[in-house]
Amino acid sequence: MDLAASNRVSDEKVYGEINSSPEIVESDGEHTEKESTDLSEGKLPEDVAEAERGEKRKCGGAEAGPSGEELDGKKDESSATKKLKIASTSEGLSYEVVDEEEQIEPALEKLRKGLPLLAVDLEGEKLSRKGQLTIVSVATENDTFLFDIKKLGAEVFDKGLRDFLQDPDRQKLMFDCRQDSDCLWHQYNVKLTNVLDLQLMEVIHRGDASTHQQLPLSTNTQVLDVPRVLGFQKCLEDYVKDEDLIEAKKGLESHSDGVWLHRPLDKSFLRYAAADVIGMLRLYKVLSETGNILNLLRDVSNRYVDFYRLKEDRSYDNYEGNPFLPWRIFQSYYSKEVQCVGCKRLFPSADFTNTQKREGVQKCPVCRKVKNVADVQQNRKDNRNRESDYDF
After folding, report:
1. pTM strictly above 0.85
2. Is the dihedral of CA 173, 176, 180, 181 positive or negative?
3. Sequence ranges of the domains in the chain
4. What is the pLDDT of residues 237-250, one digit of tens each?
5. 3-class secondary structure, 366
6. What is the CATH number that goes with domain 13-309?
7. Which 8-state DSSP code applies to residue 246?
8. Measured between alpha carbons, how far is residue 79 from residues 43, 82, 106 in Å?
């Protein structure tokens, strides 16, 4: 997810001016948090006092921890393995940075031993099939790893990260995975599988999953009140209410382009990346209270994974990316007959009037909403310019 996903619906400058509209809830794209738990699977020494100190470190405590040697009681461990076992903590967030080749396998091994539920997020500059990926964050209940792609290079995917992300037996929590999926597939040949997208899960939780998906033809001349999708920070504020996570997500918007390319990466950016995946796990727990929705969520998440990935060409305009729930995204099957001239997706002919089709101006309800918002913004801008002219 760029500073926003990311995806991600807020983070994208792809939305242009549309995100500045007061009618639109901005999203930051993106993405998650790991709830601190006990170190039931950690390889700590049997000494109880040492184990307690290790747990304090994992939960973000201030107490300094023992070295990698002391943790396992071994004198011949590699320095990379030792480094992994010393978690970096920052104001309540615990994470480990993987930026050396020798650290990759130990990190993946710890993740493999974790629960099958993972949280995954990407950071970088203008993420999509274009742009540059710099960080892949992965978290389980017990561990959070930030893989530094800028330092490790694309080879990190050949050394196990690709297989891990493609593993169909592991559920992956993501937040607006559309740009991330496009990036991973077109730049690194990684096809995400078994994704549960939390942005869509929040829509289901809110009750807006199907209210706009099937409408009578008579409504097609109107600009509909189509549902918006929320950004990750907004979801943290509304559902998780964890101040450490919310604070870690704030304050980066003012930075200039290219900040994710700088090394060493400022600690505030590491906290931001860790808060994404840590927060996703917490958000999932809250939204899971909705009930038995996993089958529906898996189905629609698969369509989110393919949403940009399968497009032959990307337009990167407001019709392609915007803060609204994509039209008919919750419908598994529908006839694909007429192309919307905005988002270029295919929909049933009945979604458009005969006049629209005859004149070649057919737009799906979401694209009509996007056009309406853009027109309102342009009218306001024109009015301000006229008022400025009168001042002289």
Report:
1. no
2. positive
3. 13-309, 338-391
4. 999 999 999 999 98
5. helix
6. 3.30.420.10
7. H
8. 16, 5, 11
